[in-house]
Structure formats: structure tokens, C-alpha cells
Amino acid sequence: MKLAVFLFIIMAWSFITIGGNISPVILPSPAKVAHTFWNLLTVGYQNNTLGQHVLISVMRILVGFLAAAVTGILLGFAMSANRFLMNIFDPIIQLLTPIPPLIYIPLLQVWFGIGELPKILLIYICTLPFVVIGSISGVQSSKESMIRMSQSFGANPIQIFRYVVVPSALPEIITSLRLSLGRSWTCVVAAEMIAASSGLGWIGNMAGLQLQTDVVFVAVLCIAMLGLIMDTFLRWLQRRWVYWEGK
After folding, report:
1. What is the rounded radius of gyration, in angstroms, for the C-alpha atoms of the chain?
2. Of 4-18, 41-55, 144-158, 211-225, which has the strongest mean pLDDT?
3. CATH code of the domain containing 160
4. 25 belongs to a structural domain
5. Lowest CB count within 10 Å: 90, 126, 180, 206, which one?
6. Tens digits of per-residue pLDDT, 39-52?
7. What is the residue range of 66's domain?
8. Residue 167: count of CB within 10 angstroms of its CB
9. pLDDT on residue 58
10. Is residue 106 part of a domain?
11. pLDDT tens figures, 204-233
12. How far is CA 108 from CA 36, 41, 105, 115, 194, in A?
């Protein structure tokens, strides 16, 4: 079914562009985009091949996202277990959550320059609140009856945390990681469009300024495919680690 939908989109796209009534600047044909993709893959764009630009963006994503995931999960667990920490950090998390990524970029540039650090920090700052909220929500979803039953069987706090709280929290945590991953791509593309000389966001921005719509399409499709691959991996982890969900 998914393949049929994909083929239908390609056929409709080809049909719209095949007559030449639409300028390639507005909507390039699938064949043109495929040719541009191969050209970027083999020849490159601005001294880097497409693979190198992809690797640069992915590395920025992985460093910022993984740092936010580890910190967010640990902080979420700590806040759930300690009312004092909850009172301190919860207002901060609530304040950070609605702030759009673009507003941070000028500050991060002033404070840390235009190297890799501000881009990674942007991803970290903008994804951390979602992981924390997901972790707290997951811990709070733990059934009180299961905790009390574990206590009645003599389980200590560490055993309760490991065998009751963590399994109950995992579905919410992985869902928050999937949402945070999408936000990570938004952040890295925004940062690369404004303050970078490499990466998929930079390619899209530079090509757009030069009306190279086919190159922009390649950048967009690469981001979409990479995001899909990463999300598929997280869903695989969810099926493997939370195999009991829905049963």
C-alpha cells in the first residue's frame, strides 16, 4: 500500500511537469531531481559531496539529540522522584518549551561564535524539554497498584524502579524521543540556513537563493528520508523494548 502511494505521487508529479507548462524553477520533474541527486552525490556541491553534507548534518543531530535524550531522561526521573527538583526545574522546562528555535540563534552566535557548538547547543536546548516532559509523564503513568504489590513482595526501591517504573515509562519516553527527533531536524536546518557553510540546511538555503529548485528538492527529500530512517529505528526499539504494549 505504501509503495502504491509512493508510485502514485511520482506518476502524478511526472504528469504535471511533463508537458512543460510549469517552469522547472517552480516545479522540477522527478527525472531532473534524480539527475541532480546523482550529480550532487558524485560531483558535489560547493566543495563537498552530498554524502559529506549528509554526514555533517547527521553528526550534528546525533550529538545534540543524544545529549538531550540522556540528560532529559535522567532529569525527568529525578524530578519525578524529588518534589524539590520538580519545583525548581518544572517552571524552567515550561518556559523553554514554546520558544521557537530561531530566536536562540543570534544569542548562541554571540556567545559561542559560528562553529559547531552553537548548532549542537540549539538542538540540545530545543529538544531537552520534550524529553523531560515525556519522562515525567511516563513515570507518572506507573500504576500505584503495581508499585504497592511489588512492595508487598519485598521489592526494594531500586527493584521497583527497574522492574516497575522504567517499563511503565518506556512507551512515553520513546514517543517523546520520536517527537524530539523531528524537532532536532528543524533546529539543525534552521541553524545551517543562517550560520553554516555545510549541511543539508545550508544546501537548501544556498540553492534557494540561486533559484536552483531541483537542488532544494534534493535537500528536502534527503532530510525527509533521513528523518524517516531515524524514526523507523526508534519505532524498532519501541517494538523490541516495549513488546508488551497493546497486548
Report:
1. 22
2. 211-225
3. 1.10.3720.10
4. no
5. 90
6. 888 887 877 888 89
7. 52-197+225-241
8. 16
9. 92
10. yes
11. 888 888 888 889 999 999 999 999 999 999
12. 34, 32, 5, 10, 12
